[in-house]
Amino acid sequence: MKKDNCTAMLVGKNASIDGSTMIARDEDGYGGINEKLFVVNKARHYDEDYVSKYNGFKMHLTGDGCRYTAAPTADDSEGRWDEQGINEYNVAMSATETEATNARCLGHDPLVENGIDEDSMLYLVLPFVKTAREGVKRLGELIEKYGTGETNGIAFSDHDEVWYFETAAGHQWVAARIPDDSYAICPNIMVIQNIDFDDPDNFMYASTIRDFVEKHHLNPAQDGSFNFRDIFGTKDEADAFYNTPRTWYGQKLFNPSIEQDPTSQEMPFTRVPEKKIGVEDVQKFLTSHYNGTPYDPMDTFSSGDEKDQKKFRSIALDRNQESSILQIRNDVPKEMAGIQWVNMGFYAYSPYVPFYTNIEDTPENYKLAEHTVDPDHSAYWMYKTLQVLVEPRYHQYIYQVNAYRDDCQACGIGHVDETDAKAKDMKGEELTKFLTEANEKTADEITKKTKALMSDLVRQALNSSKYQFERGDNL
């Protein structure tokens, strides 16, 4: 299995429109097909010798683990790949954003072939932590002890804090807290910049990292500052066309008054948005393809040419598999605070469906994704089939698709409002059961809307086929 190439966005509680924290990531697979599920793992005691099916990583895992949601790969023959979820303490984790370490640093601390990698991180961390900060600490300790075979970015959040964690080389890592009034855009490159080793409230890091950098003369800064991105990251030509344009477009959406070059490798890690950010704004970015610019591969900009349209790596592309927005709300009781907005298929065509995470189970069609295409029983295959229908007739269908997505968003918000109101006095098992049933109703209604759209698009395609011939057409 090749590594995923994803796009992430993080939002602090004072930057969001409703005071919630949000960490979100598009999981883009290694090809057009990578069957995904949305599941809940029950609380249990762990006492096992864990072995990764992906790279052979081993550790003895023990302790009481809490319930958590996840978005694993349906076929676990090459590893778990739980990817992203929220646990019963309202701690969210997204793992991972694929990145790269430069050759100079890798020479001194090579990647560990059987270290802890993306496929294992969520399973080994999320069930065992009660705050985002604890998540950073636990993952950091595992990286230092076992090493990692990859360079990755990992997001953590709870109701109060949002953290971004980056690995570098075999055993080095840092984590930075996103300022409460700010957001961050994270493509497939290192993004964390200056580290303040005297500010434990906002930075965490490997115990060895300062000595490692000093010993091997890795810091190029003239002023003695410690810029993690400059020390460990890559800044090659490929980054300027594959990665930085995604940061540029995200910051263009949320700070439109700031002019930047799409290929600049000096854009800041975090910014204070010019307006508060809602779930819909995060969705707009994660489903975008440089809309309204000459770089849109779907050609929605009248003066764009084919060369510009293919210049940068789009956010929405055929490798899209599953996207989640992990929202921890602060305006409801904590038992209802966690919502995982799940989008499967091609993100620009599919809706984000809101699921409470204090649940016993997930909807049936989100737990099934066999190798056989089955849109009737599998949400993954339903949305992948929608992609196949829309792509060849994008300009014919896109306005209808956008209207459908808006309708699904309004439906999801309405279901959340209704559920919040009915559940406000519930507690314990009664509440968990009610939220589980509410998720079923939301999934069912949006599934019906999706199948109705697909039926209509098929009928339109059949009625507009160019391979038609009537009597007299040759006259």
Plain-language structure description:
Its EC number is 3.4.-.-. Belongs to the peptidase C69 family. It is an enzyme of class 3 (hydrolase). This is Dipeptidase. Keywords: Dipeptidase, Hydrolase, Protease. It is a single chain. The chain starts with 6 loop residues before the first strand and ends in a 12-residue tail after the last helix. The chain is built from 12 helices and 17 strands. It has 2 domains: 5-348, 4-Layer Sandwich (Penicillin V Acylase, Chain A); 379-464. The protein has a 7-stranded antiparallel β-sheet with strand order 14-12-1-2-15-16-17. The mean pLDDT is 96. α10 runs parallel beside α12 (428-463) and α11 (394-423) packs antiparallel against α12 (428-463). β9 (152-157) and β10 form a beta hairpin. By secondary structure, the chain is an alpha+beta fold.
Q: What share of the residues does DSSP label as strand, in percent?
A: 15-25%
CATH superfamily of the largest domain: Penicillin V Acylase, Chain A
- The count of β-strands is 17
Q: Overall mean pLDDT score?
A: 96
Architecture (CATH level 2) name of the largest domain: 4-Layer Sandwich
Strand order of the largest sheet: 14-12-1-2-15-16-17
The global form is: globular
Q: Could you please say which CATH topology of the largest domain applies here?
A: Penicillin V Acylase, Chain A
